[in-house]
Amino acid sequence: MSYETAEAEEEIRVGELWDEGDTGVLRLPSGRLVRGRGLRRPLTPGAPEPSYGLYLLGKQPPAVPWESHWLRWRDFWLPADRAAARAELTEVWERAVRERTEVACRGGKGRTGTALACLAVLDGVPAAEAVAYVRAHYDRRAVETPWQRGYVARFAQRQ
Question: Which of 54, 62, 125, 126 has fewest C-beta within 10 Å?
């Protein structure tokens, strides 16, 4: 299946970005690369650091040496502020053209997978196919709960 967006023709590789083969890196249909990961496992020594991170946690994450934002999002649930979630995810998607961006929660599956599926929707993947896209290209267990799947399915409607 092919997903096309107006962004697909845009020059994606402007700055220093992720290596597509790195653990957790998801290539969106436009060519943008975003890393998803679980915070319970520390970064591998020598692994590239993001320039921008969005952290999906119930409580404020520890400080990191790169620019980051925290989105209050309890484990197995949905973002506490849906409007803020859309704005933050749009920011990650826009920055991914020129920066190493990452999205992370504690385990790297449910909340992270849900966020990555929403990024896929922003990138032109039909909302009904976004969970399958992320499961095929990021982690087969991504997006853990029925309400997370429903959130992704309705994400395109909340503009």
Answer: 62
Instruction: Give the whole-angstrom CA distance, residue 147 versus residue 27.
Output: 25
The angle at the Cα of 126, spanning 14 to 10, to the nearest 5 degrees, equals: 20
Number of C-beta neighbours around residue 101 at 10 A: 26
All residues at 6 or more sequence positions from 2 whose CB lies less than 8 Å from its CB, including other chains? 29
Contact 94, 30 (CB under 8 A): no
CB 117 within 8 A of CB 128: no
Beta strand 25-27 pairing with 33-38: antiparallel
The Cα 118–Cα 94 span in angstroms is 13
Q: Phi and psi for 8 in degrees, rounded to 5?
A: -60, -30
Task: List pLDDT tens digits, range 2-20.
Answer: 555 444 434 444 447 999 9
Residues of 120-129 as b/e, b for ≥16 C-beta within 10 angstroms? bbbbbbebeb
The pLDDT tens digits for 106-136 are: 999 999 999 999 999 999 999 999 999 999 9
